[in-house]
Design goal:
Blueprint: H1 23-79, E1 83-89, E2 98-104, H2 107-119
Antiparallel strand pairs: 1-2
Length: about 130
């Protein structure tokens, strides 16, 4: 057997066994590592959920607003023009509804007609 691994106090070429590190430095590095890891995890969560909320705002919350704005513009356009539309009402027989065709006039003209009717003046039926 070789005795090269045994300790010989008189042999300066043999490495002494390594000693345990100091407990103070071990605790310091452990606590610092835990703090850095926790900060990293929290920062990652904040960035993820911030980006997720931005995505939801852009793709879920604002989409109906855009559709409602388009609908509102279409309705405003209908308020400013003449046109016809039909409505169906239940008739005496459930299978045969009553269809009524109606005239749509611009809102400004409708206000003029109502104001004239309320004041008792005659209403001219011209279209603009």
């Amino acid at each position: 057997m070789s005795h090269a691994h045994e300790m010989h106090p008189e042999d300066p070429n043999v490495n002494p066994p390594l000693d345990d590190p100091e407990p103070g430095s071990t605790w310091f590095f452990s606590i610092v590592s835990i703090i850095v890891f926790t900060a990293f995890v929290l920062a990652t969560c904040v960035l993820y959920f911030k980006n997720q909320q931005d995505y939801l705002d852009a793709n879920v919350v604002n989409v109906p607003v855009i559709e409602l704005e388009r609908l509102r513009l279409e309705q405003k356009a209908k308020l400013a023009e003449y046109g016809n539309y039909t409505e169906e009402f239940p008739g005496a027989e459930p299978e045969k509804p009553v269809t009524v065709t109606r005239l749509r006039i611009p809102i400004n003209r409708a206000m003029e007609v109502v104001a004239a009717e309320l004041s008792g003046a005659s209403v001219a039926g011209d279209r603009k």
